[in-house]
Amino acid sequence: MPSEKGPHVLAEICLASDVPDPKVDGVRDGYAPHHRFPGVDYLVSGFHRYEDTQLRHPGDTWPARIAFPSWAFFGAGVKVGDRFEILEMSRLVGHGVVWVDEPHPHRQPECQRRAACEARRVARRSPQDCRARTRR
Which of 2, 35, 65, 103 could staple 7 via S-S, CB 3.0–4.6 A? Predict the structure, then answer.
């Protein structure tokens, strides 16, 4: 069983390049924005862990492991393939897609295998242009 501290999801992150005052200095491992998931009525804070210490800039897409302090309250509703918004306060700065979620205690092994297959299917898709996803 994974630690309650996380990480709770592996996700593809895309930092938008078409927002006012983008993070031109970039973001790095330890970035902690807010996240808006479908079906969750509030913003959730999450701590991003990246594979390296490289700076990520507007328009970049990369994988991240994200730990959510409030995971116990909303995590059961998060599924592989869910898209979510990344915000700094109320400002939309990017998007993400859940590739893998950690197993929940109520899931049977067959459900966990299906989730792993879905994660591989999502990962094989070519990434879409981040700019197109941030336009409304």
Answer: 65
Are the C-beta atoms of residues 66 and 6 closer than 8 Å to each other? yes
Q: What is the pLDDT of residue 100?
A: 80
| Lookup: tokens for 54 | 């490289």
Instruction: Please choose, from the candidates 76, 98, 75, the residue with its C-alpha nearest in 3D space to the C-alpha of residue 86.
Output: 98
As given in the structure block, the two tokens for residue 3 are 């630690």
Per-position b or e across 120-135, b if 16+ CB within 10 A of its CB: eebeeeeeeebeebbe
pLDDT digits (tens, 9 = 90+) for 96-126: 999 986 654 444 444 445 555 555 555 555 4
